Structure of UDP-glucose 6-dehydrogenase:
Amino acid sequence: TEGAKPRLTVLGTGYLGATHAICMAVLGFEVLGMDVDEAKIETLRSGRVPFYEPGLPEMLQKALESGRLRFTTSYEEVAEFGDVHFVCVGTPQRKGSTAADMSYVDAVVSGLAPHLDRRALIVGKSTVPVGTAARLTSLVQSLAPAGTDIELAWNPEFLREGFAVEDTMRPDRLVFGVASDWARERLSAAFAPMLAADVPLVVTDLPTAELVKVSANSFLATKISFINAMAEVCEATGADVQDLAAALAYDNRIGGRFLRPGLGFGGGCLPKDIRAYIHRAEELGVGQAVSFLREVDAINLRRRARTVDLIRAQAGGSLAGVTVCALGAAFKPNSDDIRDAPALDVARLLQEEGAIVRVYDPQAMDNARRVYPDLHYASSVAEAAAGAQVVALLTEWDHFREIDPVWLGELVAKKAIVDGRHALDQFAWREAGWDYKALGRT
Ligand code: UGA
């Protein structure tokens, strides 16, 4: 199969893996997706995507109909089928530590290696501590049958939840971390459709490729915390952070993206990635170089506490017995992901102070109920808002942006709102008689 279109396997069919497998099959590759979770594999085989991602179910249909996408739970089958194996499992924050939990990456590589009996490329896509590819190279060499030539490469993934299909089909750039020309050629073949569409490519060594990913997420997190730090200063001076951000954004060197102030960042990537990066840099003796990321994390977590402060103030100084309508649970709109979701953190803190919190989210209700069974859940905005003393907008779904303040005003007990995401038109809400408050704005 050398030179020809490589056959691809994708290890791990979570967010990243499922999207990658589906898109590569639609692009014309033969793809085998693998996961140890039988239920997940069954769901995918039956044409359903096990999480919410706009556009992905249609792509899965297309891929299955093409006959180019199959799923398995067997490492033997993966080894037998594939020329290029993509590692797409998660690297969550380790329990009781800030380091990345590498057990899933290590498990798939250890599961696959003993079955590899011909030349193959293992490509890491997961976000990992720098040095992982080198470590995995030794691991594979110790586990693969003697004489088989297995190489590691790194191809970090930059997709955003909610835009997974778009970001995979038309990425801003591709990064190939490789240790040989052969690996570069194999990766070029696997990404031929993107390269033909002139997606920019950076070819580099393994540690640089690993670092690109954590650097990118660190920069994005820093940008968000920067504007949120400015919001704190605005609060002390009566200035308006929205106007400030708008004015900064006109400077092309700064740019307006990821400069939206509010409740801050959450999700399964940004928070744990910056923590793992600090941890890894300390191990390498260069902790000082990234110690500013500690401040980025602290500013971000402070947003949650300050949002609670604002909601408490809107409730008249105490949250005990106060009914709060919490709009949003997902860590961001267009996702059902509640990992490290600022919205649910705020809901939990409100409840700790004795508030009765009624949560509504267009997609994340099942996930939220599972992890936070003690909160109250409503099945619509109207139900969440009925009789509420404070409304808190915590995730900026379009569904919430489109709420008519006059309509909502008739449902609540008191027209007090905290716009945790700067998502609403403050003038329209004030016009409708609401006491509108947002962090970084007076
Ligand atoms: C992030 C990166 O944006 C992706 O490029 C990366 O591939 C991914 O992590 C990953 O490492 O896998 P994602 O976690 O899907 O993607 O979400 P983002 O769109 O980055 O949003 C992260 C958080 O920041 C959300 O909670 C969002 O509400 C918040 N945010 C974003 C702000 O508070 N302000 C902004 O201006 C932008």
